[in-house]
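Thread: "does anyone have the structure for this chain?"

Original post by V.I.:
We have the sequence but no experimental structure in hand. Need at least a predicted one for the grant figures.
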Amino acid sequence: MTTPIVELTDVHVVHKARSGGLFSRDQVHALTAADLTVAPGETVGVVGESGCGKSTLAKVLVGVQRPTSGTVTYRGADLWTTPPAQRRTALGTGVGMIFQDPSTALNRRLPVRQIVRDPMDVHGRGRPAERDDRVRELMSLVGLPKALADVLPGQLSGGQRQRVAIARALALEPDLVVADEPTSALDVSVRAQILNLLLDLKERLGLALVFVSHDIQTVRRMSDRVITMYLGRIVEESPAADVLDRSRHPYTRALFSATPGLLAPIDPIPLIGPVPSATHPPSGCPFRTRCWRADDVCASAMPEPEGEAGHRFRCHHPVRGDQSTRDLVREQSGATLPA
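Reply from O.Q.:
Generated one for you, C-alpha cells below.
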C-alpha cells in the first residue's frame, strides 16, 4: 500500500473557553478522536455545519495547530516528536494551504511578485534568478498575466487575489494542498473558475487535496472521499459517489437532503434545534439531541466505528444503505425528538 502523506490517529484539540472568566475551567472540544489518512493524489472533502471543527482539522493537517493529544504522522514520521527545524522544513516544503479570504491572507504591502516568491526566499530554494523564473511560471500556471507581477493585492479582484494565494501555496511543489473554504469569500461568478483551476492543477501536478467547505454539493463533485464532521467528531467517511444516496449516518443524509435537486427534488430532512455547545457536549453520540432515531443507548455511549475500508461511520442506528432519502424524510416527519 502507498504510504499516506499525512495520517491522524485519535487526535484531540481542546481549547480553554474564553467566556467563562479569568478562573474558568471550561474547555472547548474543537476536535475529538479524529482518525484520518490522506493518500498521494487523492481529494478528501470535509463537510459539516459551522463550528463543527473543519478549520481546526485543516490546521492540524498543515501543522499550524498542535493536538492536545493523539498522533499526526507526516510521510511516516511522528510530526510533533521531530525537531522543530526539521518539522518546519518538512511542512513548509511539502504542504501548502489556501485560506478562506485572500484579502486578509495576502500581505497588502507586498507586490504579487514578492508574495509568490516569499516561500522560496524563506526556505532558500534556488538562486535569485531561478526564483524569479519560478514566479513567472507560477503566475502563468494559475492564469495571472505577467503585467500583474508588480501590482499590490488591493488592486486585484477577489478571484485574482485567490489565484495569487494558490500560486503561493504551490511555490515549493508540495505533495498536499489544504484548501479551507477557498471560494466562500468570492462572488458566485468567480467560484466556478477557482474550483476548475484547483481541479486542473490537482490533475496536472498530481497533488493530494483536502477541500474544506460548507458547500456540500461542490465537495461531493470535487472529492474522491467525503468526511462528515459534527461537533468536532468525524461521524462518517464515505466514497463521494455514495455520499448522496448511500451514506449511513443520519446527519450526513440530512445535510445532503438540504441541497436542491433539479431532476428529482425532495423535501429536506430538517435538523431541528441548535447545535450543542462544544464546551459542554452531550453524553454519548453528539448528534443525539437532534436525531429522530436517538434512544437511551445513544445517550449512554459514543458509537464505535462500523463499516468497511473506505466507508466507515459512527452510529448506533445507522441508515440502511438501500434506504432512500425520501423514506427518511417520511420517517423523520413522524418521529419525536428526544428530550
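V.I.: this helps a lot. The mean pLDDT is 90.
O.Q.: and The longest helix spans residues 188-205.
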